[in-house]
Amino acid sequence: MITSLVAAFMIGVLGAGHCIAMCGGISGAIAHANKQTTQPNTLAPLFYNLGRITSYTLIGAIVGFTAQIGLNFGAGYDLLLILRFVSGITLILIGLYIAQLNSAILQLEKVGRLVWQYIQPLARQFLPLKTSYHAFPLGFLWGWLPCGLVYSALTLALSTGSTLNAALTMFAFGLGTFPIMFLVGSLSTKFNSLIQNTKFKRFSGLLLVLFGSHVIYIALVQLSASGI
Prior knowledge:
Layout: H1 2-14, H2 16-32, H3 43-72, H4 77-98, H5 106-124, H6 135-142, H7 148-158, H8 163-183, H9 189-196, H10 198-226
Helix pairs in contact: 1-7, 1-8, 1-10, 2-8, 3-6, 3-7, 3-8, 4-7, 4-10, 5-6, 7-8
């Protein structure tokens, strides 16, 4: 379980460049669009990111509950190992995408767009923000944005086979994305340039590839030990 939490957290941290590409625009807008409220400007980004992390945690609980039900109805431990193997492959794919070496993971995002087309209009209703607190439901809905990075963390959460552990895994992922997404509206131009730098993306992406390879290796060792 500790390995899943650390891996999920690192997915969020190393995927900083991808996070900015997917959600940086709205995060930056929120950071500067809170002028009509009496609350400090830092509250809107805070509530937006708390909403986003809450949605990740809920999605994790849902997939974990699904896996737990499957186990209760006879799916064995071997299924969890296979799911962990799949999560390793997904990690490698998102790593290659972040490193700008392969875009196959984008095919997975197309599936999520079917749901997003119904959620996006709801999210748009909270823009422009009337109060800082409206950023929370906006972030909660925006957390369902189709994203390969989120899906790679979800496969890891699914492989825990537990509602609680899957929720904690996605919470750890959300925490990993929090610093960069919270600060994106106020980051310096130089720091933004660093995150978008090709070498930085290659380094971050290849680290995720190493994480994925490690997950696959552990899964294969455990599958071999179980007799598959």
